[in-house]
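Help wanted!
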Amino acid sequence: MKKIENPQNVTNAPIIILVRPQLDENMGMVARAMMNCALYELRLVSPRDNHLSEKAVSASSGAQVILENAKIYETLSDAIADCHFVYATTARPRDMTKPVYAPHDAVPLVNTAVGRNQKVAFLFGAERTGLENSELICANGIIEIPLNPLHSSLNLSQAVLLVGYEWYKSVCSVANTRYETGDSEIAEKQEVDAFLKRLETELGLRGYFRFPDKVERMQHNLRNIFTRMPLGHSEVKTLHGVLNDLIRPLTNKK
Amino acid sequence: MKKIENPQNVTNAPIIILVRPQLDENMGMVARAMMNCALYELRLVSPRDNHLSEKAVSASSGAQVILENAKIYETLSDAIADCHFVYATTARPRDMTKPVYAPHDAVPLVNTAVGRNQKVAFLFGAERTGLENSELICANGIIEIPLNPLHSSLNLSQAVLLVGYEWYKSVCSVANTRYETGDSEIAEKQEVDAFLKRLETELGLRGYFRFPDKVERMQHNLRNIFTRMPLGHSEVKTLHGVLNDLIRPLTNKK
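Answered by r_m:
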């Protein structure tokens, strides 16, 4: 699956289906979590509260468009009718034979389907009761979020967030790990080396390397401090400035 | 790092530090998210609300112990004094030279330190303002959670949850992806094969394989339906029962 610059360009991104959700506030928070993860299609199976209430909209924190476009269904069977794959999230899979996936392990299956223009839905049950056995039956597989067994209960929107996040990571194009250097570029090695040579020279003039058999080790230790992190251009300049001032004799002693 | 059966056995699991958190409810929700991820040490730097208020405890949903054990500090510098590594979460890293990690990329670094009994802290800023530049300075690196650039604002507890979840996944011992078979074990291939042979025999008696040149393909198609998913013992029995009844002549026609 192609990595995306603009997450709204994913056609057939997975659908989130809430089955018998109770609280409008939770539906709003689910919409927010969905938008965080570039999931835009929400379906609600016989919701109790109004998903467009003031509370819901406020909890959605700017993801109102997802609530407005949400489709309401009377039965789960109607809600999944046009889907090709359905994955049901549940804290504890019940007595049935099904594959159980951690969210990150389900993502490749989801993306294979999405890449073939097939629709994939993630089911989430009601706040307290979760999905019933009769509702799990329709699923190709179960998604189980690995959490502390001593405290695995999640808010509905947090379950949506964790599943959505695993999917989003797989499609987002952001280079995640990198060096941030602000306005300055990373300095070339020769700039750093020039600073270190100058530092060594100035230190040498002041007797820092006074034990000849330790000079090399002292140089290594000193260089290691400044070479293991990338320095920016402007940081090397800062270090030169620091050195300039440190070697200047104090003229105005107080 | 050893995988854990009981997540409370992780000594020196990462510490969560909230810097100037405002709402008691959010502190409670952070405690809940921490417990979900088996993180038990919370530090608060000059919190506005009382972290033990009724609202906070209620929002913690059973993670009250984390709130009760939380330590309060006046300054960030005090809060991180005994830590060896500090990672600061921020939506957008400012103008400074720092490595920026996605949460999952920071986890190996964290676990290396934890494995050496070094303390690692994750910093989270105030709800609206996040961490200030002067607070980011103390960090070894920045954690940036990859999210939809069109809507990347997260609730404080959700940021803690996503970072904590990435860590928890790396230490939990649960076999994530597996086949759940309820009370029944997966059937051996010979059981499935015996059922399929019986099915073919009964179908053969009824003229199902009427075109000799298509027999093999028809058999393959039929077998493929039942062999690509693992069947449980009891499911094979169910299928035998279904077959028993299907081949029985209707005696009491209505």
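OP: Thanks! One thing I noticed: The longest strand of chain B covers residues 15-19.
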